[in-house]
Design brief:
The chain has 414 residues and is α/β, with parallel strands linked by helices. The protein is built from 15 helices and 13 strands. A 7-stranded parallel β-sheet has the order 3-2-1-4-5-6-7, with helices on both faces. Strands 10-9-8-11-12-13 form a 6-stranded parallel β-sheet, sandwiched between helices. The two termini are 32 Å apart.
C-alpha cells in the first residue's frame, strides 16, 4: 500500500504558464508515481480549474480546490498587518493566508494520518502550527529574503527601499526559524543551500533543481543562424522581476544596440504585461510585446538570441533551462542565471550592465559559429542535468531518506 502525502499549495498549479506552476506540477507528477498524493490548492477562477483539474486527477488520489481570497482592500490590509503582528509573520506571508485552505487542511488531517506533509512555498507553513507526527517537507521554490534584498538593491525610492530591506530582514528571520522545525527543506540550487548554512542540521536541506521537458522544448528543424536579428525574452510579465527586466532592456540596452547594429528587434513574450511595458511596445517599432501567446516556442525558434536581463528575484529561472533545451544561444545577467550549474563562455554568456549586454549580443550576431557552439553545449547540459525525469528522481530519493522525527520538538512552529 502506498504511503500518503498531503500536498498543500497556495496556488493551483495550472495553467503551466509560469515557472512556479510548472515546477509544482512536475514534482507533483513525480511524487504521485510512488505515493498516494492529496492536493489542496487555491484557485483564482473556474477557468484555472477545468483542464488542470482533469490532468491532476490523472495522477493525484484527490484534488481539493478552494477559492483564492487575497485582496488589496483597506480592510484586508488591516487584517494582514494585524495577523503579521500577532503571529510574528512577514507581511507577504500574512497576506497569503487563506482560511479555506486552513479548513481543508484541518479536515483532512482529522480524517486520516498522512505519512508526510509537503508544503509548497513558504506561505503554506502557516497552516501547520499544531504538532503532528507526519514527516514535514517544504519546497521553498526560492529564498524570499534574497528576493526582497535584491529588490531593495535596485529600488530608487528611499522609503520603498527601506520597506523592502525591513521585509528582507523579517523574512530571513522567519525563514530560518521555520526551516529549523522541518524534516526536509528543498531548495533549487547549491547557491541557495549555501545561504542556509546558518541553520542547524543542514543535511536536511536538499537541492532539487528546476527542470525542463527536453522532449517538448527542443531545437527547431532549421538552425537559428538564418533567422532575423531578433532578441527574445520570455516569461509571465505579470511577475515583477520579468517586467522589470523587459523594461530595463528596452530603456537601457536597446538604445545602445540601435547605435551598434541596424535592424535588431526585441520580442517580449508572455502574459499579463503591465501598462508601462505595453506602452513601450507601442512607442518603438523595433520592440514587440506579445502578451499571452498559444506557443512560446514559436517565438524562440524565430529569434537569433535569447536574453535574460533579470535584475531582481530569487531562485532559478526555468526560462533559461528552456532556452538551453531549445539550443538557442543565451545572454543573461548573473542574477538571471543564478543557481544553474553552467560554464560561463561555453554554455551561456554573462553581462551585468547595459553596455556589456549590448556588446555580447552584437558579438553573437556577428559570429554564427559561436552561436552554434553555445547552443549545442547548453542543450547537452539541459538534457543531462535538468530534464524533469532526472530532477524528480532526486526528489523521490530525498523522500526515501527523510530523517526520523526529532524528539521533544514541535513539528512545525511557524
Amino acid at each position: 500500500m502506498k504511503k500518503t502525502i498531503l500536498f498543500v499549495s497556495q496556488q493551483f498549479p495550472y495553467p503551466l504558464t509560469d515557472g512556479g506552476n510548472i515546477r509544482t506540477f512536475k514534482l507533483l507528477e513525480g511524487l504521485a508515481a510512488q505515493y498516494d498524493v492529496c492536493l489542496i490548492a487555491s484557485v483564482r477562477s473556474d477557468s484555472d480549474v477545468q483542464e488542470g483539474f482533469q490532468l491532476l486527477k490523472g495522477f493525484c488520489s484527490e484534488v481539493v480546490c478552494v477559492p483564492d481570497v487575497k485582496s488589496r482592500s483597506p480592510l484586508s490590509s488591516i487584517f494582514t498587518v494585524g495577523r503579521a503582528l500577532l503571529r510574528n509573520l512577514p507581511l507577504a506571508v500574512a497576506h497569503n493566508f487563506n482560511r479555506h485552505i486552513q479548513r481543508e487542511v484541518n479536515v483532512h488531517r482529522a480524517r486520516k494520518e498522512f505519512w508526510a506533509i509537503h508544503m509548497n512555498h513558504l506561505d503554506t507553513v502557516q497552516y501547520f502550527s499544531r504538532e503532528g507526527t507526519e514527516k514535514t517537507v517544504l519546497d521553498s521554490h526560492n529564498l524570499l529574503h534574497l528576493f526582497y534584498a535584491k529588490a531593495a538593491s535596485i529600488e530608487r525610492s528611499l522609503w520603498k527601499r527601506t520597506l523592502l530591506r525591513l521585509e528582507a530582514w523579517r523574512m530571513r528571520r522567519y525563514e530560518f526559524r521555520v526551516f529549523e522545525t522541518l524534516d526536509n527543506v528543498v531548495v533549487c540550487s547549491e547557491l541557495e543551500k549555501h545561504h542556509l548554512a546558518g541553520i542547524s542540521g543542514t543535511d536536511r536541506v536538499r537541492v532539487v533543481p528546476n527542470g525542463v521537458d527536453c522532449t517538448y522544448f527542443h531545437p527547431p528543424q532549421k538552425g537559428y543562424e538564418r533567422n532575423p536579428a531578433t532578441v527574445v525574452f520570455t516569461g509571465a510579465m505579470g511577475y515583477s522581476p520579468n517586467s522589470d527586466a523587459a523594461v530595463y532592456f528596452i530603456r537601457e540596452v536597446m538604445p545602445i544596440l540601435r547605435k551598434k547594429s541596424q535592424g535588431i528587434r526585441f520580442a517580449v513574450v508572455g502574459r499579463d504585461p503591465p501598462a508601462e511595458l505595453v506602452a513601450l511596445g507601442r512607442q518603438w517599432t523595433d520592440v514587440l510585446v506579445t502578451g499571452k501567446v498559444p506557443d512560446v516556442r514559436e517565438h524562440v525558434w524565430g529569434a537569433r538570441i535569447f536574453v535574460v536581463p533579470i535584475r531582481k528575484g530569487a531562485g532559478t529561472r526555468l526560462k533559461v533551462l528552456e532556452a538551453f533545451a531549445m539550443g538557442i544561444p543565451t545572454v543573461s545577467t548573473s542574477v538571471g542565471a543564478e543557481g544553474i550549474e553552467f560554464t560561463p563562455e561555453q554554455d551561456l554568456l554573462l553581462a551585468d550592465d547595459p553596455a556589456s549586454m549590448a556588446d555580447r549580443i552584437v558579438e553573437l550576431l556577428q559570429n554564427p559559429g559561436r552561436c552554434e557552439a553555445l547552443g549545442k553545449r547548453a542543450m547537452a547540459l539541459a538534457r543531462s542535468r535538468y530534464d524533469w525525469k532526472a530532477v524528480t528522481e532526486g526528489l523521490l530519493e530525498g523522500y526515501e531518506r527523510l530523517a526520523a522525527p526529532r524528539p521533544n520538538e514541535a513539528r512545525v512552529r511557524a
